[in-house]
Amino acid sequence: MEIERLVYMANQIGRNLATEDNPAAATADHIRLFWDPRMKAAIAAHFVAGGEGLDAVVRDALTGS
Amino acid sequence: MNGYTPQADFGTPEVSADTVVTLTIDGRAVTVPAGSSVMRAAAECGGSIPKLCASDNLAAFGSCRLCLVEVEGMRGTPASCTTPAADGMVVHTQTPRLQKLRRGVMELYISDHPLDCLTCSANNDCELQDQAAAVGLRDVRYGYEGASHLGAEADTSNPYFDFDPSKCIVCSRCVRACDEVQGTFALTIDGRGFASQVSAGQAGDDFLSSECVSCGACVQACPTATLQEKAVKQIGLPERAVVTTCAYCGVGCTFRAEMRGQQLVRMVPWKDGKANRGHSCVKGRFAWGYAHHQDRITSPMIRDSVDQPWRIVGWDEALDYTASKLAAIKAQHGARALGGITSSRCTNEETFLVQKLVRAGFGSNNVDTCARVCHSPTGYGLKTTFGTSAGTQDFDSVMDADVIMVIGANPTDAHPVFASRMKRRLRKGAKLIVIDPRRIDLVHSPHVEAAHHLALQPGTNVAVLTALAHVIVSEGLADEAFIRERCDWDEYQDWARFVADARHSPEALEPVTRVPAGELRAAARLFATGGNGAIYYGLGVTEHSQGSSTVMAIANLAMATGNIGRRGVGVNPLRGQNNVQGACDMGSFPHELSGYRHISDAGVRALFEGDWGVTLDPEPGLRIPNMLDAALDGSFRALYIQGEDILQSDPNTHHVAAGLAAMELVIVHDLFLNETANYAHVFLPGSTFLEKNGTFTNAERRIQPVRKVMEPANGLEDWQVTQALANALGLDWNYTHPSEILDEIARLTPTFAGVSWERLELDGSLQWPVNADHPDGSPIMHEAGFVRGKGKFVVTDYVPTDEKTGPRFPLLLTTGRILSQYNVGAQTRRTANSIWHGEDVLEIHASDAENRGIGDGDWVRLTSRTGETTLRADVTDRVAPGVVYTTFHHPATQANVVTTEYSDWATNCPEYKVTAVQVSLSNGPSEWQEEYADLTARARRIAAEAAE
Ligand code: SF4
Ligand code: SF4
Ligand code: SF4
Ligand code: FES
User: Domain B811-939, what architecture?
Assistant: First the structure.
């Protein structure tokens, strides 16, 4: 999967869930519930490799995953 | 249901009243609701009073004087259609005096009527003829010399029906049908007395050039052959009728398919249909000719690569070829390399089977549906806030609304039959608020005027809705009693604090939304205080980067004003395609099994696993855009597409084409070689809705039967094709009728538990949920409490789209649809409907056009960062400066070449409604258009030698 697109999608989710009580948990939940395993694997690998372009809330979300 | 009898006509509309009256008609006692006419009462007890100007879908008019009756104690002979029934009334409908009077009336009509009954196309289907016989008319004393209509010329301009004024009896049923039922006001009666005549539009107009939208209501209303379907003249009168459901839009009109042998003569709206109440639009009524269009492919075809011509093969070869390719790809790349797309145009049963094939046969959850690109945010938003992914009301509910808010929807074009109901309510005094960048027809049309049109900047829906909420909360207009009882109070308070913040005031947001703050405040006050408030919305809400947030903001607004859970209120998504609700209900989304239950829920999975005898993947699958992305990296390789044309309908055509081209196996199951089929390796011919049994579910959750009226031209109904493919893959499916698939759906889906084919035959239709709690279905949802328990207020912060205008692309493009064409146009373009819309055009405001030297009708180039296309300009003030608009019905234009990959944050529903573009004069098709025309010609070749 094109990683820029996944980064964009993840950031977009994070931005739209910013008003939740726990935005990072909400973002992690959203990804868990709606993303296919290869997309999850790709974003996790990207995060582990430095996570270029990922917003802070998404980084927090991915930390727990 | 077989055999031809005309639909019953009780003469005047049904009345609903709390009290009843009992009267005696020709010696029989009859009890009817107070306010019913004597004519209706007579019909209710099986009698029939002669009539010509009355019809039970029109207000009584009292002009023909044929329906005279005698009432004991009353002087004269009143018209029964305009005389209300009263307690104790004694009525005589057949006396020598009445017979004489009626004969006299009839004589006058007949003296101005060509007496060519035997050769008339309406012979034996003509009320004038029937009534002449009923009153015992034998001869005409007036001679025919006074006649004024006999020489009048027929108007044949409409492609589907003719108007032959020589046969007109000037009963004005057509005029009233156009006014009262359709709400278009296209017809008038010109002149007086014998010289009076029906005319369409202004002087010099014919039906085609008038305002007429070809809904057919006048044709249905006409008691003579004056207004008649051309097909009746060509084919002859029907001999039998089968009730079925329209396969176009989400209104779900039911029709009588009136047949002569295996030939469809006409589709006549079914008066007992609860979605349409006897009305129709041009598409369902007339645009079914595609079913036997010459382009239709009826044999399976295969090819190894898309640059080869197609090879026609038998079903066995096609299915074996497909199954072995699927098996090979699965063996090499795993189940997650395979997927399918279900169709919102197919039946619930077919859709259910396709998702079952993907989950149980392919072994992945990579199944999605075209709702991805339209109403997936509705699913997400309403599930989150209310607990269920569907609209809350039935269509009838609009008749109890006091304030109607239409957001990002264009009902008169996209949901015309519902729009006619809405207009009827608006004419009776309900107030209208329109939130749309474009001045849709409803804003200002005959006898309908929006109280407020908030012409917002595309992409600012959430800001506008938050500003509306700001006014309601900060001015103390919220319905706190409702909220305390029905919603989570803490969540409400968080939300109320958020919207009440000064930065969300209409004044603060005006620079972003471009909606004058005063107008917005007035609209908010009207919605909160005007009585029952009902919200109707469409794709102008969902197809945005904040589509899901907008749906939730709408739900917030409805809850905050207490407008949920009874008639006349509610949140109503206007669904695009006929079965988009059903496709979503049937488990077409990659993360959900039928009934919106998440695939990660082990209990739900176990239910299906037990029934299907397989193990299901617990992880969500790929959505359509993800499938295309994954195809490009080689992890997704085979796609079965039933009844969808993603190349034309999905955004960023170049990207879709690249994704499809990267796949090893694309299976298109359709009526025609559509645009997607340019990239396909297997073509499985499909069947039309006229050739299959099953059910569709409309926008009001109404499950309605689709009945086979003719044999499938390709030999198999679509569910049979899917079953054959499943069996070729080694599954052992043995359905013999869609009713068995429906039983399986009911068994596995709590909201469908009480649905069965037998029940539908009995009840005509059912609105889900149908189960132990709601044995007769659920016209209105959330009546006693929300499905999720407490209604959930969700804070929806406005996040501007990343699609920004700038010096290169200074205008915002938004897209939509028009009445006569349907979606990608595969069906309607293959009918005479193209007479109204032969090409997509670009609406552009006069000031933007002038700046660019563009005149009305000029060819212009429409460019975005993803691509460009050319089309003609329509210079107009319907759109605001800075905004341009087009439709996506024609592959030659293919508006989606310019739309982008931006999408809704929660569902990936594409942001069709906002694309930054530039428009300039053009002198011909774009390079892409030329290349694509070449590619299409190559891709559609069919090898001659095999085509015997
Ligand atoms: S077809 Fe419909 S719109 Fe046209 S004149 Fe008849 S009723 Fe009116
Ligand atoms: S066209 Fe038909 S419906 Fe209209 S006035 Fe003439 S007879 Fe009546
Ligand atoms: S297209 Fe829609 S409104 Fe028109 S007849 Fe069909 S279901 Fe009814
Ligand atoms: S039917 Fe009553 S006046 Fe015509």
Answer: Beta Barrel (2.40)
Regarding pTM above 0.90, the answer is yes
Span B39-65, pLDDT tens digits:
999 999 988 899 999 999 999 999 999
CATH topology of domain B317-374+580-730: Rossmann fold (3.40.50)
CB contact under 8 A, B619 and A36: yes
Give B856-894 pLDDT, tens digit per residue.
999 999 999 888 889 999 999 988 899 999 887 777 777
Number of structural domains (chain A) is 1
> Would you say the CB of residue B221 lies under 6 angstroms from ligand 2?
yes
* CB of B696 sitting under 6 A from ligand 3: no
Single out the residue of B768, B766, B750 nearest to residue B758, CA to CA.
Answer: B766
Which position has the token pair 């109404």?
B702
Q: Let me know: does B387 contact B788? Beta carbons within 8 Å.
A: yes
Average pLDDT, chain B: 91
B200 lines ligand 2 (CB under 6 A): no
What ipTM, to 2 d.p.? 0.96
Contact of B662 with chain A, judged by CB distance below 8 Å, is answered with no
Which residue in B590, B630, B795 is closest to A38 by CB distance? Answer: B630
Of residues A16, A32, A35, nearest to B799 (C-beta): A16
User: How confident is the model over B130-144, as a mean pLDDT?
Assistant: 72
Rounded CA-CA distance B336/B621 in Å is 8
Which residues on B lie below 8 Å from A37 (Cβ)?
336, 619
Report domain extents, chain B.
20-134, 317-374+580-730, 389-573, 811-939
A46's tokens: 């990207």
pLDDT over 70 percentage in chain B:
97
How far is B656 from B652, CA to CA, in rounded Å? 7
Domain containing A40 equals 3-63
Q: For an interface test with B, which of A7, A16, A55 has the most B Cβ atoms less than 10 Å from its Cβ?
A: A16
Q: Indicate which atom in ligand 1 lies nearest the CA of residue B185.
A: 8
Distance CA B406, CA B425 (A): 14
The beta-carbon neighbor of B797 closest among A18, A33, A34 is A18
Q: Is the pLDDT of residue B801 over 90?
A: no
| Architecture of the domain whose range is B389-573 | 3-Layer(aba) Sandwich (3.40)
> Token pair of B812, please?
């915002």
CATH of domain B20-134: 3.10.20.740
Q: Are B889 and B848 in contact (CB under 8 A)?
A: no
Neighbours of B110 (CB within 10 A): 20
Q: Judge whether residue B651 has pLDDT over 80.
A: no
Select from B626, B627, B794, B908 the residue whose CB has the most chain A CBs within 10 Å, as the one to mutate to test that interface: B626
